[in-house]
Design brief:
heterodimer, A: 111 residues, mainly beta, 7-stranded mixed β-sheet, 4-stranded antiparallel β-sheet, 11 strands, 0% helix, globular, B: 112 residues
């Protein structure tokens, strides 16, 4: 069966520290992968998407970057976190169909 | 520019009542319109979806109504239950990469 793993579930990081969030998908090949951010009580904002290894498209210019080193691995990074980077980060995937499957999310608090 | 507008922001319904959430879009390239349900601390889960060549789709207590000419679509939850209390997002997708554009969300509370 197809599953998506996202970790860690929660993270508290100081301002200026680096960030690495990882997402992996199992049971499928060549998925489209997405990173979304959800601020408290707000909607979902698309940050990055990838249609293949090494292919990254950015939707919003910001303090974050993404990489896809393997077919089913998607990483969200930052060199120096800002307070405004706090939020709920969600990874999602889709393959050939129209429906997204979301991971369980990472709650990031920058202090 | 917000491409999918969702209303209301919050909704309170009595148990057994009908919950109605509305969305409007601008981009005529959208070709798939899903609704997602999100519980606190969880990722959104696909609830029901519709293609623009269909005016209505029903799955159990959940119905999507779609008006292509008006560029509007809505979610109806019949016989609403306290367990339906969650945040609901409409969305629309287009393009080969199937990027989803979300509405701002509706927090639904169903009173027992």
């Amino acid at each position: 069966s197809q599953t998506i793993h996202q970790w860690p579930a929660t993270l508290v990081q100081p301002v200026g520290s680096p960030l690495s969030l990882e997402c992996t998908v199992e049971g499928t090949s060549n998925p489209n992968l997405y990173w979304y951010r959800q601020a408290a009580g707000r909607g979902l904002q698309l940050l990055f998407y990838s249609v293949g290894i090494g292919q990254i498209s950015s939707e919003v210019p910001q303090n974050l970057s993404a990489s896809r080193p393997q077919d089913r691995q998607f990483i969200l990074s930052s060199k120096k976190l800002l307070l405004s980077d706090s939020g709920f980060y969600l990874c999602a995937w889709t393959v050939g169909s129209y429906g997204y499957t979301f991971g369980s999310g990472t709650r990031l608090t920058v202090v | 520019q917000q491409q999918v507008k969702q209303s209301p922001q919050s909704l309170i319904v009595q148990k057994g009542g009908i919950s109605i959430i509305n969305c409007a879009y601008e981009n005529t390239a959208f070709d798939y319109f899903p609704w997602y349900q999100q519980f606190p601390g969880k990722g959104p889960a696909l609830l029901i979806a519709i293609r623009p060549d269909v005016s209505e789709k029903k799955e159990g207590r959940f119905t999507i109504s779609f008006n292509k000419s008006a560029k509007q679509f809505s979610l109806h939850i019949m016989d609403s239950q306290p367990g339906d209390s969650a945040t609901y997002f409409c969305a629309a997708t287009s393009g080969s990469a199937r990027q989803l554009t979300f509405g701002s969300g509706t927090q639904l509370t169903v009173l027992p």
